[in-house]
Amino acid sequence: METQSIKFGKNLVTTEEFLAEGHTFCTGCGEALALRLACKALGRNVIIANATGCTEVCTSPLPVTSWRVPWIHTLFENTAATASGIEAGLKVLMQKGKMPEKDIKCVAVAGDGGTTDIGIQALSGALERNHDFLYLCFDNEAYMNTGIQRSSATPYGASTTTAPAGKLSIGQTTWKKNLPEIAVAHNIPYVATASPGYPFDLMNKVKKGADVKGPAYVHIFSPCPTGWRHATDLAIEIGRLAVETGIFHLYEVEHSRYKLNVDRPKLKPVEEYLKTQGRFRHLVDEEIARIQEHVDEEYAKLKAKVACFAA
Amino acid sequence: MSKRVGLEASHAAAEAAKMANVDVIAAYPITPQTHIPERLAEMVADGELNAAYIPVESEHSAMSTCLGAAAVGARTFTATAGPGLEYMHNVLYVASAMRLPVVMTVANRALSAPLSIWGDHSDAMSVRDTGWIQVFCQNSQEAFDMTLCAFRFGEDPTILLPVMVHFDGFHLTHVTEPVILPEQEEVDRFLPNFHYPFALDPDKPMTHGAFAPPDIYSEAKVAQEMAIRKSKAVVMQAFKEFGDIFGRYYHPVEPYKTQGAKTLLLTMGSFSETAKTVIDTKKDRGESVGLINLRLWRPFPFDELRQAVKGAETLIIFDRCISFGGPGGPVSSEIRSALYSERERPKVASLVGGLGGRDMSAKDFEYVIDRGREVAEKGSEELYETVGIRDKVSGIRG
Amino acid sequence: MTEKRLKTGSDFTWRNLEVGNVITETGNAALRRTGDWRTQRPVTDVEKCNKCGLCWLHCPDAAIKPLKDGYYESDLFYCKGCGICAKVCPKGAITMIEEQEE
After folding, report:
1. How confident is the model at residue C3 (pLDDT cuts 50, 70, 90)?
2. Which string of DSSP letters, residue by residue, matches A159-215?
3. A-contacting residues of B 165-224, CB under 8 Å?
């Protein structure tokens, strides 16, 4: 089959769809787009280990599958462990001559639930053991597939079903867990953050992570119209706004050296980002100010790290 | 030349994994299984065994890692005990339903709470329904033999199921016993290379682990049940082939001097050997007794069990586990159920003991048989009785 | 020739399910008509289109296909009508219109 590419400036993007059309992701899903692009960056020589979640459910209702690459789902909490087995299995089988030497990358795909909460132990273990695999976290900031329950990646002030905004609560009362920094703390060769609002940056990072020898972690911001309560056509815009307001940082850490990919001399006010989504609608000015303060602090921290550990 | 060496069951199991040329070992240490991963780590570090040794960070990950490795066609091995088996409980069901032939040795250990590192069968009994093929061992030789057989059972292309080999924590894992280690050539003859027909491969992409809506889940489960039922014939065939090559023949149900015996005792694991000495003693005294060692636990050997108890008046079943609030000893409840449909069947008595490392001496088994006979004849106030539990301060047995 | 249609669970008995429920027919989801979902549909004004391809790039459903002449066409079999293409088009060449009852 002839594979073609479409040129966007210096970026060449394959027309091949490794994720088949006809999946059941929501209309306008940011994760679906991020996944589609990531698959294009990865190509066909991969084996994907997928956690339970939006991606898994929207792509594999027996007997139908959206996958055109080898793919395995086992449970919610063990993606990195399953991936570890795939990686080690391939390596030893090739080394023992029990299978032909082939270029195959093991890729773990999980949501924020399967990464920052129930899956964090397996992830930490796999990163520490230095498996040669790429871990992609598609972060839609809650357990979206099961109906918008909170995760530790849910941002402060967001309303979810298990931490709802109400008379006595503003919703999420804790700050978003910083998984990219936890990955950095494991001293792995490559950590990056990405957003579908910057599609070429996303694809380049996924490719870079796949090419790394050793563990790589890419955290992908995934706007969710259903859970974040925004219009179905806004995923890309929100994916950009998050970076422009400093809500989400776009950066890479290669062997502990930091590089900021998008740096604005002045961040847009967070309110511009928050007002696009119904999950923040209940927030009063005081809370928005608190969020602004936290965002400014976190951005300053990151800039300090970039200056201190410059790539 | 095969050689006779002194080995703990742990080391015997490790030797079997080595001779089976496993590809991937993913294990987490837990007493009393630790000698298994330790010995394997040593073998890999010294180049004695060419395998990927993955020191995972939990038992849950141990089983998950084995799944991933099996799914790309690697021969996988792990080991655990007690709470470790519980920690991977979720993943056990996945392994069998996804038809991934992982082999796991379980050093049978009591479950917390209270914490006990010592042996009993509560861990094994908690995984009855997980869909794994399961066998029990009486000694170190069997730990070696059954581990080898496990690869043969599970990897059979008509079966493809994971297999558990149970042997008693401490009583077997930490006791050196004579083991005959075969020649590598003999093992290679017994155990063909593993070929997984659905291996994850970019040249032939497949989707594993799709979720099942209600309109198909039931069919998936029935297909799984049919597979484990079919595995019984493969187990029998493998036992025969094993015997033909290595000279030791195993059976799902192993009667010991049961011919014409009025009273039968059924045990599993290392205690069978202790109980057998009691059978000999009692027979010398002219008592009509015999023992059944239950080896194959899953798939349950209904035909063989029913055949073995034919003609006996009393069947005493000794359990090393309590099923709280339920019918007492899990093994006795399953056997009662297996015999229920028989027009003629022995009276069944259920006794439970040997919990959390509480030893059962020959004298204790004499009590089990004597009391079991009494219970079968005259009945008991209890649904099942316990052995060796201190009830009154004076320490009266019973 | 039998027309291919999306498989469902009811097509299988326990006997003909693949071992381990493995799906060997890659990408058979492509038979699913997700176009039934939409309440609005994209319409492209070719005059305004500069063939940049950003609509194709940003479609979460791969429901925009590249044409031989370099233009792009919405695949209404799959298009869920999210409107992202209209939003990202730098030339405003795509408009979302309400789906009519047929």
Report:
1. low
2. --SSS-EETTEES--SPPP-HHHHHHTTT-SEEEEE-TTSHHHHHHHHHHHHHSSS-
3. 193, 200-213, 216, 220
